[in-house]
Amino acid sequence: MYLTMFKSKLHRAVVTEANLNYVGSITIDSELLKSANILPGEKVQVVNNNNGERFETYTIEGEPNSGVICVNGAAARLVQPGDKVIIIAYAMMTREEAESFKPSILFLDEKNRIAEIKDREVHGEIK
What we know:
Layout: E1 2-14, E2 17-19, E3 26-29, H1 30-36, E4 43-48, E5 54-62, E6 69-72, E7 84-94, H2 95-100, E8 104-108, E9 114-118
Parallel strand pairs: 1-8, 2-6, 3-5
Antiparallel strand pairs: 1-7, 3-6, 4-5, 4-7, 8-9
């Protein structure tokens, strides 16, 4: 049996653009993708802290070290530049793999630079 487990997260990323006329996806600074262990084309869930919207899309690489977080296509109606979002990737793994797996959790600052990296979340911690 495979379990769907939390694999990676960009926590409190700031949306820099919303492009309704693009065909779809979310453009993310390629260095953030690498650091979070998220591949171009990988399915992600996006949670908007400002309005509660949740949606799924796939990633495309943005300019490295640009801090770009651009929601494209129809999902652009669900965000505004300046909104804080959580971008989450999941992975299918066996129970044995899941028991030892450590996720990549990137806490970002206001300019979408990495402020901290962790490999677990603790209930009650506020970031």
